Amino acid sequence: MKRREFIATTAKTAAGLALAQMPVAAADHRQRPNILFIMTDQQHAGMMSCTGNRWLKTPALDRLAASGVRFERAYACNPVCIPSRFSLLTGLMPSAIGMGKNEDSKQSAVTDAMIEQSLGNLFQNAGYETVYGGKVHLPARMNNLKSIGFRSLTGNARQGLADACAQFLKGPHTKPFFLFASFINPHDICYMAINDHQRSAGGTATDNLDSRTCEAVLDQARQSADLAGFVRDQCPPLPANHEIPDQEPEGITRNYVEVRPFRVHIRAHWSERQWRLHRWAYCRLTEMVDAEIGVVLDALREAGLEDNTLVVFTSDHGDMDAAHKLEHKSVLYEESVHIPFLMSLPGAIPRGVVDHTHLVSNGLDLLPTLCDYAGIEAPPGRPGRSLRPLTQDKVPAGWRDSIVVESQNGRMVRTDRFKYCLYDSGARREQLTDLKDDPGEMKNLAEVPAFKTTLDQHRRILKDWVNTTDDKIAATYITGT
To answer: What is the pLDDT of residues 217-250, one digit of tens each?
Structure first.
């Protein structure tokens, strides 16, 4: 680094530290950045055209990525809505409240302290105007937005949310704001498989807005005079990892596929045409939400707020997108757990950076990152880290070399090259993958003697994590590995 750049950087860092140490009431809101957090539902990391995906166009997200940093190794804490969203708002793993799946919502052990120290309350108490719009879907004790520190902007999670956000951004602001915009799509893709299964059993499509939106997108293709030609020429091909791995853990079939009849149906019966149509519709729904995000980003620019607003984008989890003959989420395969994560703040975050190196947990790292930028002290006992130093090319000492993801019946460890999964039941409970040589996760190396040392290393990492985080769920089945 040149001497002039060093001096400038040091001055900015010192100013930031001074601001962080100031009483909240004394900090000038023009110096503390506004926060715009944008989240989609069920968008895996490859569903942006800036990642090289040529089957869709996402100009809004591409523009955001070009204006800041894209973390290419970002993961959800759990590839299901409610557990993931709990983590995003609290910086805690879902196992901290005994949660593994959406159905655990009512009995999840959310404490008063967790609510008081969640994002909305932290920022509201620090003098921010805190506003939430769109899909909520949190544990039962947290579903009241007021209790977690937010004013409700709108319950609409579609174009209505985009318009409400635009109106808010263009309005008067007497203090810094934290706007949480939670969009529903491309989640509507779920209903292609659900409705197909229902029709195959003599029923009809589900009659709700999500289903009707998915059906309307699919009808654009179904009404083609030559559907076979449409699929051949316009639909994404099957992914290279479309087939089921020979040594797939039995727990995936038992605990993720067989618990939902429509998953059994499509894995056994869908044709190449149906899978490719699914991938095509998933792209269109992603483009739909990208356009809505574009409305919000345009409003931010038109309101003259871009230069002092930290924009963060992510998704709660991914979608299997035809990999291993699966759709939906829940499983620990990459398409389900690997999510997009973008950050932009002009003048503070370099433009157009792609971080291929550092492992990021969107659920654990979001809270300390936002608190860092706002000069708010993050609650103690959180396992996440602020990503702010990484955006300045300053890797903090002891940055993680592994990351853990939870699911309803298993745990996953991701290291630089390898990925290890442990399931709570079934044959072949362990799965070890070399993501460098096998990014599609088609070869299970857990029983290959040459990888015994690597397997043992990842077993130890998971055991240490379970003990450190007091993961009582995994503790019941991790012994013996």
So the answer is: 999 999 999 999 999 999 999 999 999 998 999 9
CATH number, position 408: 3.30.1120.10
- Same domain flag for 43 and 160: yes
Question: Can you spell out the DSSP letters for 250-305?
Answer: HHHIIIIITTSHHHHHHHHH--HHHHHHHHHHHHHHHHHHHHHHHHHHHHHHHTT-
- Contact criterion met (CB below 8 Å) for 362 and 387: no
Domain hosting residue 106, numbered range: 32-187+283-391
* 3-class SS of residue 74: strand
Q: What are phi and psi of 414, to 5 degrees?
A: -115, 125
Torsion, Cα 60 63 67 73, to 10 degrees, reads 80
Q: Is the dihedral of CA 257, 259, 263, 265 positive or negative?
A: positive
Given the structure tokens 């539902």, which residue do they identify? 41
Residues 385 and 425 in one domain: no
> Which residue from 141, 58, 56, 73 is spatially nearest to 107, judged by alpha carbons?
141
pLDDT band of residue 104 (cuts 50, 70, 90) is confident
Domain end: 365, 391, 417, which one? 391
Do 67 and 164 fall into the same domain?
Answer: yes
Query: Which tens digit of pLDDT belongs to each residue from 272-329?
Result: 999 999 999 999 999 999 999 999 999 999 999 999 999 999 999 999 999 999 999 9
Nearest to 162 by CA among 271, 278, 7, 298: 298
- SS3 at position 170: coil
Model pTM score: 0.92
Residues 302 and 433 in one domain: no
> Nearest 5 degrees, angle CA 83-CA 87-CA 88?
115
Q: What are phi and psi of 15, to 5 degrees?
A: -65, -40
The verdict on 38 and 173 lying in the same domain is yes
